[in-house]
Specification:
The protein is mainly β. About 15% of the residues lie in helices and about 40% in strands. The protein contains five helices and 25 strands. A four-stranded antiparallel beta sheet has the order 4-3-6-7. Strands 9-14-13-11 form a four-stranded mixed beta sheet, with no helix packed on it. Strands 18-17-20-21 form a four-stranded antiparallel beta sheet, with no helix packed on it.
Length: about 425
C-alpha cells in the first residue's frame, strides 16, 4: 500500500517539476522581474461536445519574491495573420494562479503564445504554447431575411420582412463589424428586427444585407420582392326608391364588386346634380330630394389615392297630396281626372278659327311694296359644337349617364342636356 501511494504522488508532482524545470531554464525574463513560474498547464477543450477542439485553457502558477507584484497575463492567438488576445491582470501575493481560455473564432491552425507584461505594457517574457487545429467555438456571423405576407403583393397589402443577425465571435474579441442594407425605398435602421413593407410603392425590389467584422468574417442575405399597383376600386350602386313619390324612402348604397376588398377605409364622396352639397359615407339618403330627375355620382378613393366613379339617375315623383304652391314648384304632372278644366263652347271655337284664317290669308297674299325678298325668321341658336364636331361644354364639367345622355353642370347646380338633333344644349 505504501508503494502504491508513493507512486501516485510521484505521478501527480512530475508535471509540476517538469514545468518548474522549463521555467528555470527558459524563462529568465520572469526571474529578472522577481517572478517564478511554479507550473504551466494547457488543455484543449470541446465546449459543444461535437468531437472537435474549439477552445484552449491555459493555467499558470506564479510566485513572487516581493510582497506584491502586478502582472498582466496575456494569451495571444494567431490565425490567418490575425491576432486575438485574451488577458487578465493578477496581483502575485505569494503563490498565485491565473487561468485564461481562448475560444477559436475560425476553423484552422491557431498558434498560441503566453505573454507577461508590467503595468506600463512592457513585455517581461513570452512562452510558446503548442499549436492546435480548432473549429469555431462561438456562432460565426449569420444573416437572414424572412418574408411574411401574401404571394401576390399589391400596394397596401400586408407585408413584413423579419431580419435575423448573429455574431458571437466579433464582439467577443472587440472586433465589431458593420451591417449594410440596400434595395429598400426607405432608410432601414441597423437595430430594426422587423421591416414593414406594406407602405412601399409599387416596383421590383432586390434586397441585400451584408456584414463584415474586423476579423474578416462575412455574412450575406438577399430577398426579391415584387409589388404591383393596386387597381382602382370597382363597385356598383344599389338604388332603393327610384321612381317613387317624394313621401317614400329612397336610398343609394355602394356594393363592392370584389367581396374580398374592404371599402371601409376608403374615402366616399356623393355628388348630386340638383344640390351643391357633397356628402360622405357608404349610403346616400335620397329621401329628401324633391320631385324630378337627379344625377347621383359616387367617387371612391382608396388608400393609394386611386379613385373610380359611378353614377345613377334617380327619378322622384310628386306625392299625391300637395298644396297649390308645391304643385306650381314641381315639374308638370297630370293629375288625371282631378285636373281642373274649363269647357270651351263651339261658338268660341268658331270665332277663333275665323280670326286665325283671316290672319293667315293676309300674311300669305301680302306683297311687300319694295319687292324685297322675304327673310327667313330666326331658327334658334346656332349649333354649339367644336371644330371636331364634339359638343362645346364651355369649360363646364360633363358626365354621361347610364342611358348614354350627355349632361353638363353649372356652378349653381343647374344642368343642361345635349340635344344631338339640333347640336345645342337644352336647359333641364
Amino acid at each position: 500500500m505504501r508503494k502504491v501511494t508513493c507512486f501516485l504522488v510521484f505521478l501527480f508532482l512530475m508535471p509540476l517539476f517538469g514545468a518548474m524545470n522549463v521555467s528555470a531554464e527558459a524563462d529568465i525574463g520572469l526571474e529578472e522581474a522577481g517572478i517564478t513560474m511554479v507550473a504551466l498547464r494547457n488543455d484543449s477543450l470541446d465546449l459543444n461536445q461535437d468531437g472537435d477542439i474549439d477552445a484552449v485553457r491555459v493555467v499558470v502558477i506564479l510566485n513572487s519574491t516581493t510582497p506584491s507584484t502586478l502582472v498582466d497575463v496575456r494569451l495571444i492567438a494567431t490565425h490567418n495573420d490575425r491576432e486575438v488576445v485574451v488577458s487578465t491582470t493578477i496581483e502575485i501575493v505569494g503563490q498565485t494562479n491565473a487561468s485564461l481560455t481562448y475560444d477559436a473564432w475560425s476553423r484552422g491552425t491557431h498558434e498560441l503564445v503566453l505573454g507577461f507584461y508590467d503595468m506600463n505594457g512592457v513585455e517581461i517574457s513570452t512562452i510558446d504554447i503548442p499549436t492546435y487545429e480548432m473549429v469555431p467555438a462561438k456562432q460565426i456571423p449569420m444573416l437572414s431575411l424572412q418574408f411574411t405576407g401574401q404571394s401576390n403583393l399589391q400596394t397596401g397589402s400586408s407585408c413584413e420582412i423579419n431580419r435575423m443577425f448573429v455574431d458571437e465571435t466579433g464582439p467577443l474579441y472587440g472586433a465589431l463589424g458593420t451591417l449594410t442594407f440596400t434595395g429598400a425605398p426607405f432608410i432601414v435602421l441597423d437595430n430594426a428586427t422587423s421591416i414593414d413593407c406594406s407602405s412601399w410603392p409599387a416596383g421590383e425590389y432586390s434586397l441585400r444585407e451584408t456584414y463584415r467584422n474586423e476579423l474578416g468574417q462575412t455574412a450575406e442575405a438577399s430577398l426579391n420582392l415584387t409589388i404591383e399597383n393596386r387597381p382602382a376600386p370597382t363597385f356598383d350602386l344599389v338604388v332603393t326608391g327610384d321612381g317613387l313619390t317624394t313621401d317614400r324612402s329612397c336610398l343609394v348604397a355602394i356594393q363592392p364588386t370584389n367581396s374580398n376588398e374592404d371599402f371601409t377605409p376608403y374615402a366616399k364622396e356623393w355628388d348630386v346634380s340638383t344640390t351643391s352639397v357633397i356628402t360622405e359615407g357608404a349610403v346616400y339618403d335620397c329621401s329628401a330630394l324633391p320631385a324630378g330627375v337627379h344625377l347621383v355620382v359616387l367617387k371612391v378613393t382608396n388608400l393609394e389615392n386611386i379613385a373610380s366613379t359611378q353614377a345613377v339617375n334617380i327619378v322622384r315623383l310628386p306625392a299625391a297630396e300637395l298644396t297649390i304652391e308645391e304643385q306650381e314648384a314641381l315639374p308638370s304632372q297630370s293629375f288625371g281626372e282631378d285636373t281642373s278644366t274649363e269647357d270651351v263652347g263651339w261658338y268660341t271655337i268658331t270665332v277663333l278659327g275665323l280670326i286665325v284664317a283671316i290672319v293667315v290669308f293676309i300674311l300669305l297674299v301680302r306683297i311687300r311694296e319694295d319687292d324685297e325678298l322675304l327673310t327667313l325668321p330666326e331658327l334658334g341658336p346656332a349649333p354649339q359644337i367644336l371644330n371636331d364636331g364634339s359638343p362645346d361644354s364651355e369649360g363646364l364639367p360633363t358626365i354621361v349617364d347610364d342611358e348614354g345622355q350627355l349632361w353638363r353642370k353649372h356652378p349653381d347646380g343647374t344642368l343642361d342636356w345635349w340635344d344631338s338633333t339640333y347640336n345645342i344644349w337644352q336647359r333641364w
